[in-house]
Amino acid sequence: MSERKGRSTVALGSVSASAYAAVGGKKEGEGPLGGRYDYIDADDYFGQSSFELAESAMQGIALQNVLEKRGIMPEDVSMLFGGDLLDQCIGTSFGTRDFGIPFFGIYGACSTVSEGLSLAALTVDSGASEISGVITSSHFCTAERQYRFPLEYGGQRTPSSQWTATASGALLIEKTGEPPFIRAVTVGKIVDRGITDANNMGAAMAPAAYSTVSAFFGDTGLRPDDFDAIVTGDLGNVGSRLFCELAEKGGLELRARHFDCGRMIYDQSAQDVHAGGSGCGCAASVLCGYFLPEIRAGRLKNILFAATGALLSPTSSQQGMSIPGVSHLAWISFEKGEI
Amino acid sequence: MSERKGRSTVALGSVSASAYAAVGGKKEGEGPLGGRYDYIDADDYFGQSSFELAESAMQGIALQNVLEKRGIMPEDVSMLFGGDLLDQCIGTSFGTRDFGIPFFGIYGACSTVSEGLSLAALTVDSGASEISGVITSSHFCTAERQYRFPLEYGGQRTPSSQWTATASGALLIEKTGEPPFIRAVTVGKIVDRGITDANNMGAAMAPAAYSTVSAFFGDTGLRPDDFDAIVTGDLGNVGSRLFCELAEKGGLELRARHFDCGRMIYDQSAQDVHAGGSGCGCAASVLCGYFLPEIRAGRLKNILFAATGALLSPTSSQQGMSIPGVSHLAWISFEKGEI
Are B105 and A189 in contact (CB under 8 A)? Predict the structure, then answer.
């Protein structure tokens, strides 16, 4: 059962990710993890007439896929935690409404998948839920026109900017006794170091990722070399460098085992994505398509997964506000056990 | 400890709302519950230079107030659940960032306070959190310009439209052994009956409220006359009538004990609000300013509190989509006990 460790970490009993699915667009299918997706759409429209409907359809495909993998019906899921980047999270509201699953909407920007994973694990661990689901997504075309410019404008992108992934990840959490186990979660605080450049979100999010990762180590007494991989969400090239520098200054050498979903999802030499990928669907699909299968297969034994979110809006940026960041962390393991 | 009851309801052990605070704007202060607020701002700017900053400042006042009432510091709070109506929930990100509390962002539109209350109660009940906080807000001036028109435009409002409250509610959940107790929560499903009129959100949300309230009665075997009040969020005049009609058709006669926060917050004969109040801060401030104190004093023994949210965005409405609704419910009681 849930046991608090220090300020921000909760150790869990036996809670597993029982099924997971990753869905992506054309560019994601052409990336180095393309073969890891359960479904790739040929033109990013997912058979719909608008990009917003496409994003919702993509969520529906991911959620349906994960239910079929597990061999259950929507009514077998006790609670669903979901959110996305669109204003008022409409990608999720419309993507999940026909499933009829008791629904908690969450918003953590690109940290949404680890926020959902944390809440799903906490509710299953306590017995409040038998099976909790997590769903999130992002779509390049909905994000560009909402946060930046209409695609037709053809705006230049700065070197520090990241490419919003067209992708969705869905997973189920329950007590199966099988790996991957969610052994602990660390709830992130909002951290704002005054970055105001909305085209450099990696820099805005890196301090939040470091805050959460260092809180985990402080709360548990574990060390970086207890883990095969310390994974951040979508810090990209700029944010990843800053994250490792912040960790080094704090006495944690992470470079040898640090991976960033924003750097993994695209081939940076061949796919023109500047500082890497981003978006709720980036970390979610890399988790569901790559890391969770690797842990289930035993090729990875212990990872820390810390998706990162930039809590800005176009309004806050236009009003000159800085960019708050947040990152939630989960310890995911091949082995069950006490901390 | 948490025990599932039926499809959607979780019965809780001994979990209490230990402190609560309500903050409002000028119009809310002039309403029938004006004397119930802990702080009323004279001009709705809360000392800030923009309406968005005002909304964040209002959240900060509510959160600080509730901490002071309880006599604790931010670092004593294990987890904070918060959200608002603004794009990317910036009211909350900027309103709470300086408190440094581990933070879960949530989005349930005007149902946010009961979503947060549910998650706060679940995490405290399980021991994952010692003290969980809930914060939410809405501001008439930020909502009008984001969802409808700039205030300067002076647009006409339709009779079914509701007035977004300038208000915030904050509360703390922990195991004090004192009332008000949160005895059970029912997690709502997304319900969409095809309403497309964004100026009639009461009609869009009423089916969701009925879905959740009827799920609670079905899951628990309790009956309406077990409760002093069955409270909905912001259905307003139109939605309240529809809610009671839907309940009657489903065999639940609720009219004698139904209250709606959107109808309570303003004097409808003297304050020109058309169909009533709305906004995350409406239900939150009526809960924190009126219902929780009434239960603590023993003047109300048992209530169901079901805030309601309309999960639309300007984009979804402009694209002709219907309005999904959601409602989460909490049974709040003067008495501790088993279901």
Answer: no
| Contact between A307 and A292 (Cβ < 8 Å) | no
For A162, residues 6+ apart whose C-beta sits below 8 A from its C-beta are: A201, A202, A234, A236, A262, A273, A274, A275, A276, A277, A278
pLDDT at site B301:
98
- Backbone conformation region of residue A173, classed left if phi is above 0, alpha if psi is from -120 to 50, else beta: beta
pLDDT at A14: 92
Residue A155 confidence (pLDDT): 86
CA A285-A289-A293 angle, to 5 degrees, is 140
pLDDT of residue B182: 98
Which chain A residue has the Cα nearest residue B7?
A78
User: Can you give the pLDDT at residue A135?
Assistant: 98
In single-letter form, the type of residue at position B91 comes to G
* CB contacts, 8 Å: A115 with chain B: 104-105
Instruction: Give pLDDT, residue A258.
Output: 98
Residue B206 to residue A12: CA distance in whole angstroms? 38
Q: Which residues of chain A have pLDDT under 50?
A: none
CA of residue A20 relative to chain centroid, distance = 13
Q: How far apart are the CA of A119 and the nearest CA of chain B, in angstroms?
A: 9
- Structural contact between residues B306 and B190, judged by C-beta atoms closer than 8 angstroms: no
Residue B189 carries which DSSP code?
P
The whole-number pLDDT of residue A2 equals 85
Query: Do B300 and B273 form a contact (C-beta atoms < 8 A)?
Result: no
Given CB atoms, is B196 within the 8 Å cutoff of chain A? no
The two three-digit tokens of residue B158, written as one number? 């339709």
> What SS3 state is found at B184?
strand
> Who's near B98: CB < 8 A, 6+ residues apart?
B60
Contacts of B133 (CB under 8 A, 6+ apart): B63, B66, B77, B79, B80, B81, B82, B101, B120, B170, B171, B172, B173
Interface residue A293 vs chain B (CB under 8 A): no
What DSSP string describes B219-288? HH---GGG-SEEEESS-HHHHHHHHHHHHHHTT---GGGEEEHHHHSS-TTTS--TT-EESHHHHHHHII
Q: Which residues of A touch B188 (CB under 8 A)?
A: 102-103
Coil/strand/helix, residue A252: coil
Q: At what angle do helices B201-220 and B236-249 cross, to 10 degrees?
A: 40
The pLDDT tens digits for B85-142 are 999 999 999 999 999 999 999 999 999 999 999 999 999 999 999 999 999 999 999 9
Residue pair B183/B222 in contact (Cβ under 8 Å)? The answer is no
**Is A229 in contact with A303 (CB distance < 8 Å)?**
yes
- Longest Cα separation, chain B: 54
**Cα–Cα distance for residue pair B61/B220, rounded to 1 Å:** 37
B138 in reach of chain A (CB within 8 A): no
Provide DSSP, B303-328: EEEEEEEE---HHHHHTT----EEEE
- pTM above 0.95? yes
Domains in chain A: ranges and CATH: 3-174 (3.40.47.40), 181-333 (3.40.47.40)
A312 close to B (CB below 8 A): yes
Residue segments in chain B with a per-residue pLDDT below the cut of 70:
1, 339
Query: In chain A, what's the furthest Cα-to-Cα distance?
Result: 54
